Amino acid sequence: MDIDWDVPEITSAAWAWMEEIEKSAVRDNAISNKAVTFKDAALRQYLNLMRPSITKIGCAEVLCKEKGVNKYRAFCLTDQAPLKDNEVVYEAGKGGCDKGETCPKGLTCKKGLCAKP
Question: Which InterPro entries does this entry report, sorted A to Z (predicted)?
Fold first, then answer.
């Protein structure tokens, strides 16, 4: 993203990715009673970061100046491969492990989310 302010933070990049869901809703044909599937490249960044299967994330950022304009880039990697078309983003459930869902093996329920102990 190109910016016109002096000191961006990694959180500003995260907010930009989160804005994807505000600008482009998940398509109706991607939502069923059982799951939400990936069908829209406009939501790629957001949905790749919101998957419940992610247990690790690492991010890097850089700020450069080019022709008097600040250029900010942020990049995050997770422990999951990027989503492919029609791949399940998340499955429908009861609303988290504090609502009756069970956590995968090796994870425990913390504040309604499955997490490593």
Answer: CAP_sf (IPR035940)
pLDDT tens digits for range 65-81: 888 877 788 888 999 99
Distance CA 43, CA 60 (A): 21
* Domains of the chain, start order: 2-115 (3.40.33.10)
Name the CA dihedral angle for 36, 99, 112, 58, rounded to a multiple of 10 degrees: -20
Tell me how far apart the alpha carbons of residues 51 and 62 are, in angstroms, rounded to a whole number: 25
* pTM of the predicted protein model: 0.68
What is the per-residue DSSP string for 31-72? Answer: B-SSEEE---GGGHHHHHHH-TT---EEEEEEEEEETTEEEE
Cα separation, 7 vs 12, in Å, equals 10
